[in-house]
Design a protein that fits this description.
By secondary structure, the chain is of the alpha+beta class. The protein folds into six domains: about 1-40, no CATH class; about 105-185, no CATH class; about 200-240 and about 545-640, Roll (Chitinase A, domain 3), CATH 3.10.50; about 245-255 and about 445-535, Roll (Chitinase A, domain 3), CATH 3.10.50; about 260-340 and about 440, no CATH class; about 345-425, Roll (Chitinase A, domain 3), CATH 3.10.50. It has 24 helices and 19 strands. The strands form five sheets. Strands 16-3-18-17 form a four-stranded antiparallel β-sheet. Strands 13-4-15-14 form a four-stranded antiparallel β-sheet. A four-stranded antiparallel β-sheet has the order 5-12-7-6, covered by helices on one side. The protein is extended, with a radius of gyration of 37 Å.
């Protein structure tokens, strides 16, 4: 039998062999074959729904751009990534909820919100933020580029922007529909409003004597482990956690210049100032790379604030120390003073690429209105004040200074805007223009300083290799050991930048371990971490120091209050007699049942409001044990002659406290419930690195 015939008779076997051979070839051809079987595009799973890396990264970049536009330049990438992922998790949960409820947005509703007679305010805001007057114009630029005079490549960018805007608006409309479902259900009826009114209608004035539990010694009221465990069991649901928590201590050391570095820098700056005074221009620092020279040509009004305070009073060729802030020296040398026009008021018009710019310019200069030219003009801006000293205006500076006022001209050098027309309306009078050399010198840590900071921290870690010693010995060594919590979804330690590597180490370490030294990307900080404990159950355990302290204090205060009640019970027939027995003064305050706290009493002592609400005028009440004190009181006056029941007002108060407003604040937690959230962001970045 021929080989070909044998292959034909065993097709399944042959295919299997070929498949195995192909798989072996692939596994040997790639650097990390294990990644072929891993999900490397999912940063989180929300109740089984994946959040894809590409969409996550797009949202991160978008958020970073928005923060930069608003002037937030110091926000770390890790903070942005954590914020965006939490947003996307919440959105995914809501989308699943919308699906369960059958909520949808029709094409008509979306179209009306985008380009209807009254577009959604968000649409208008976003479109105008792109520099486009209306959503209709964005749509035409995206899908009718020829008509709009838009380059096809730019049209593709507009299409992407339009598609994303549609998605965002659809989410908003779904959110609004979802909220409307609960407006009726969670809106106060007359009974709800009346209950709110009743809780706040009566203002009771009380005379009271109050003895604080702190008057008793803590050591006289021991709290046992059994008591703590019993109290914890009754409220342990308060300590539910949805992912493992790693409790850490960390020491962060800023890499900054030492005192000797600062003294050396001061000496060098003083020598530079002396040299600048006797040498032309900035020759004295030209060969020294530590000094950065920035030439500034500006009027006093347009000068930076630090220079404005110094330069106008200087003589030409004189030198002045401007400031020393954040280890940076700023020096100014006035190189010259001239007189020039600074401000010019102009109108600008942009001509459609399909129209003749010279013809349009002639029409405008012979009286044609912009409105009469229709689509020939794509955009116009009137009454813009420009500074001819601004580098952005350098290309057309000469024309702005010499062009005939009241006439449009086409700039000879217009930075590629072939269809730009400019009309000068007026020029302000000439002013003094200062030519300044702004010289800065950054004081940086010397190599010796950096080496010593590193050496000192490493020696400390070697001498204190356990988490307990790491924390307890820090103050003695001149360090501050701070606390933080790291989870699998944490990308930074207490929002410190460039600490993802430290977080990764923490997640792989055991309780008691101490790390080595971590550097940030700019070598501006040293970091060391110790793992104090790891909570990997459903709840923070009763052994947690903070929980244990809270429960101990709570139980001890209860015991103290009970002791005070027993001590003072029957010791008087009036508030004054009880005050004398307690060694305190009688005081007065006002109480309403619905108020969150009472003046002169700690927040959350609701037992007082409850007792006052049922007390009769003139009745002596107490001693009553509160959370942190014991009180005896008498209601001296109960005023309920204030405002009358107002359904609209009291319904509004109910809605704010217990209705839709409260629901919206707690909505993310309500929707999340017990759904499984698998946050893989830390592992995701670690695997990619």
């Amino acid at each position: 039998m021929s080989t070909l015939e044998q292959i034909r008779q065993r097709p399944i076997l042959i295919v299997s062999v070929l498949g195995v051979a192909l798989l072996l070839f692939i596994l040997t051809a790639v650097d990390h074959p294990g990644e072929l079987f891993q999900d490397n595009h999912t940063v989180a799973k929300v109740d089984g729904e994946k959040i894809d890396y590409l969409e996550f990264q797009r949202r991160v970049e978008q958020q970073q751009e928005q923060l930069q536009q608003r002037g937030y330049t110091n926000v770390s990438p890790e903070q942005v990534q954590e914020y965006v992922l939490q947003q996307m998790i919440a959105e995914t949960l809501m989308e699943k909820e919308y699906g369960k409820l059958g909520l949808t947005v029709t094409d008509k509703e979306l179209s009306e919100a985008m380009i209807g007679a009254t577009p959604h305010p968000y649409v208008t805001q976003m479109v105008q933020g792109m520099g486009i007057p209306s959503a209709q114009m964005l749509y035409e630029a995206a899908y009718e580029p020829t008509k709009s005079g838009v380059d096809p490549q730019q049209a593709a960018q507009f299409q992407a922007a339009w598609t994303q805007l549609e998605k965002d608006v659809e989410k908003m409309l779904l959110s609004q529909k979802f909220g409307q479902l609960f407006q009726g259900v969670l809106t106060a009826n007359k009974l709800d409003a009346k209950a709110i009114y009743d809780d706040n209608a009566t203002v009771s004035t009380i005379a009271y004597a109050r003895k604080d539990v702190s008057s008793l010694k803590d050591e006289d009221f021991p709290v046992s482990d059994a008591e703590i465990n019993n109290e914890y069991a009754g409220e342990h649901n308060r300590y539910l956690i949805d992912e493992p928590q790693h409790l850490i201590s960390y020491i962060a050391v800023d890499v900054v210049p030492s005192s000797s570095d600062l003294m050396e820098a001061q000496k060098e700056v003083e020598e530079a100032i002396a040299g600048l005074k006797v040498n032309p221009s900035t020759d004295a620092v030209a060969s020294n790379g530590k000094f950065y020279v920035n030439r500034v040509s500006a009027t006093a009004a347009r000068m930076a604030q630090n220079l404005k305070k110094v330069v106008p009073g200087m003589a030409v060729d004189s030198v002045a120390m401007v400031s020393f802030i954040d280890n940076q020296y700023t020096i100014a040398k006035l190189l010259g003073v001239t007189t020039s026009i600074d401000s010019v008021r102009v109108d600008v018009a942009f001509v459609n690429e399909n129209a003749n710019a010279d013809s349009i310019m002639a029409s405008l200069n012979t009286g044609a209105t912009k409105e009469s030219l229709g689509d020939a003009l794509t955009q116009t801006q009137d009454t813009i004040w420009l500074s001819v000293l601004d580098p952005a205006a350098a290309a057309i500076k000469d024309e702005l200074l010499t062009a005939e006022t009241g006439k449009y001209f086409k700039p000879a050098n217009n930075n590629g805007n072939a269809g730009m027309l400019v009309r000068v309306r007026e020029r302000k009078a000439p002013v003094s223009v200062y030519d300044v050399a702004e010289i800065t010198y950054d004081v940086v840590p010397s190599n010796a300083t950096i080496q010593k900071l590193n050496s000192d921290l490493r020696n400390y870690l070697a001498a204190n290799p356990t988490a307990e010693k790491f924390e307890s010995e820090a103050t003695k060594a001149g360090y501050s050991a701070l606390s933080a919590v790291v989870t699998p979804s944490t990308l930074s330690i207490n929002n410190l930048s460039d600490t993802r590597g430290a977080c990764k180490w923490v997640l792989g370490a055991k309780a008691g371990q101490v790390s080595g030294v971590f550097n940030d990307d700019r070598d501006s900080r040293l970091l060391a971490v110790a793992v104090n404990n790891v909570y990997d159950g459903k709840f923070i355990p009763v052994s947690d120091p903070q929980i244990r302290t809270y429960l101990t204090n709570k139980i001890r205060n209860m015991k103290k209050a009970e002791k005070l009640v027993a001590d003072y019970k029957g010791k008087g027939k009036s508030v004054a007699e009880y005050a004398a027995a307690m060694g305190v003064k009688v005081d007065t305050t006002q109480v309403t049942f619905g108020q969150p706290y009472v003046r002169n009493f700690p927040m959350g002592d609701s037992k007082l409001q409850a007792n006052v609400a049922v007390a009769k005028k003139g009745q002596l009440v107490g001693p009553v044990a509160l959370n942190q004190s014991v009180v005896v009181f008498t209601v001296t006056d109960a005023d309920n002659s204030g405002r009358k029941f107002d359904y609209q007002n009291d319904a509004m108060v109910f809605n704010q406290r217990e209705g839709i407003a409260t629901f919206q604040r707690t909505l993310p937690d309500v929707i999340r419930g017990t759904k499984k959230i698998e946050n893989k962001i830390q592992k995701f970045y670690s695997d990619r690195n």
